[in-house]
């Protein structure tokens, strides 16, 4: 696969992955097409076995066995997250004011709210319903068509809008769906939509739905330098890790985990602070007591987008640590362990990148500004594994439309590919 095909695949994946559930579905389909099979507790995995994958709601784990026993070789892991800041629909959302139908929302994660105004929005997620036999079942929904908008207030009615505009998520962010008589019920609407898809639904019982921008992902710029899309944070890393795993030669035990709920703290059954990865590894090992030994011989690369230095706001970065778009993947460092990078992990990444002819950048937050975090420190604490935080430089992180470089994801893919096939041990202790 060359860079052009890689980026075409990335754009297609971003378009398909309108919610964390859809991202998992899109990745599972690609894994299945490549010969991976669903993992069960009875799966007997040994050297040379076919790859397996396991999904739970918005989280996916995929494992490709290596050519040597797992405890001898250790495990090469890449982690990312499937969720992005968005507007989630409330349980009783219908609002009828002045003859308009709106839906009440709750902001998921640390979203930039202003860019959500005046966008053509659609709705995606999963629906839980009672089927014809009386059981609870779930189905994914994605309306695809623009069915909602959040109109701005005209400048004539708010002359200070360009000087000092704050947004109240409760009173100003409810998406507008239609002119309505007051009879609309979202659960009934979802039931009819599912029936149109050929699904037998007695009653919609609940849902997890998010609004999203229908503008398609695109490669833009005078020379196609940029990738513009919603959800680059962090579906770009999910896709990059997935493609690296699919291209792995099977010489090393290689694992990809894409967790849900990173944007709200990772404290969930399917989040990085939940038990899902540890339970999966214990099921693969079958000897739970062997997990600490395995982690001593393993490594996690946490891939999550990095802040590129913005030409209009250069003072927001440390002058020596301002990653450039298309300057290569970024090693993220924070001495307070908001990133889990250690010198040995960073050294290995630099070595792999050099072997692939890929430039590497560094990011450290200004000493007078607070630092964000990733699944990296959480995974390091939960598993006791050496962890490295890296990412692709990005503008407008947490906006409804973000911007990354068209060279950077491909460059990261090459380094992760080298990581998954490197024959030498990850680390050799000093004598």
Automatic annotation (TrEMBL):
In short, the EC number is 3.4.11.-
EC class of this enzyme? hydrolase
The family database entries (SUPFAM superfamilies) matched by this protein are listed as: Aminopeptidase/glucanase lid domain, Zn-dependent exopeptidases
Q: Which cofactor does it need?
A: Zn(2+)
* Keywords annotated in UniProt: Aminopeptidase, Hydrolase, Metal-binding, Metalloprotease, Protease, Zinc
Pfam families, sorted: Peptidase_M18 (PF02127)
Q: Name one GO molecular function term.
A: aminopeptidase activity
Q: Which InterPro entries match?
A: Peptidase_M18, Peptidase_M18_dom2
Gene3D superfamilies from the UniProt entry: Aminopeptidase i, Domain 2, Zn peptidases
**Of which family is this protein a member?**
Belongs to the peptidase M18 family.
Write down the NCBIfam families for this protein, in alphabetical order: PRK02813.1
Its recorded name reads: M18 family aminopeptidase
């Amino acid at each position: 696969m060359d860079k052009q095909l890689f980026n075409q695949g990335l754009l297609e994946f971003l378009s398909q992955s309108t919610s964390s559930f859809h991202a998992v579905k899109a990745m599972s389909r690609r894994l299945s097409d490549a010969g991976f099979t669903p993992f069960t507790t009875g799966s007997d995995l040994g050297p040379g076995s076919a790859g397996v994958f396991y999904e739970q709601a918005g989280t996916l784990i995929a494992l490709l066995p290596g050519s040597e026993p797992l405890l001898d070789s250790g495990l090469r892991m890449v982690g990312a997250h499937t969720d992005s800041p968005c507007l989630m629909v409330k349980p009783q959302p219908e609002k009828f004011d002045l003859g308009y139908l709106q839906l009440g929302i709750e902001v998921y994660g640390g979203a930039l709210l202003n860019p959500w105004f005046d966008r053509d929005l659609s709705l995606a997620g999963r629906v839980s319903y009672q089927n014809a036999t009386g059981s609870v079942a779930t189905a994914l929904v994605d309306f695809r068509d623009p069915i909602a908008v959040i109109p701005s207030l005209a400048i004539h009615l708010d002359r200070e809008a360009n000087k000092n505009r704050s947004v109240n998520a409760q009173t100003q962010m409810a998406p507008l769906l239609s002119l309505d008589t007051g009879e609309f019920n979202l659960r009934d609407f979802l039931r009819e939509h599912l029936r149109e898809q050929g699904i037998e639904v007695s009653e919609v019982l609940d849902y997890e739905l998010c609004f999203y921008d229908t503008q398609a992902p695109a490669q833009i710029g005078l020379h196609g330098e940029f990738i513009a899309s919603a959800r680059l944070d962090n579906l770009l890393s999910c896709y990059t890790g997935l493609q690296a795993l699919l291209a792995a030669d099977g010489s090393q035990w290689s694992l990809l985990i894409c967790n849900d709920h990173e944007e709200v703290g990772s404290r969930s059954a399917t989040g990085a602070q939940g038990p899902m990865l540890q339970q999966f590894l214990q099921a693969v090992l079958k000897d739970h007591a062997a997990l600490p030994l395995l982690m001593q011989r393993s490594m996690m690369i946490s891939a999550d987008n990095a802040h590129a230095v913005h030409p209009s706001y250069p003072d927001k970065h440390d002058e020596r640590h301002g990653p450039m778009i298309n300057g290569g993947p970024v090693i993220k460092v924070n001495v307070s362990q908001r990133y889990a990078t250690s010198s040995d992990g960073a050294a290995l990444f630099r070595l792999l990148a050099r072997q692939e002819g890929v430039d590497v950048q560094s990011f450290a937050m200004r000493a007078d500004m607070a630092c964000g975090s990733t699944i990296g420190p959480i995974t390091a604490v939960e598993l006791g594994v050496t962890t490295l935080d890296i990412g692709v430089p990005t503008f407008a992180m947490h906006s409804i439309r973000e911007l990354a470089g068209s060279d950077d994801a491909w460059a990261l893919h090459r380094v992760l590919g080298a990581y998954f096939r490197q024959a030498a041990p990850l680390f050799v202790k000093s004598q």
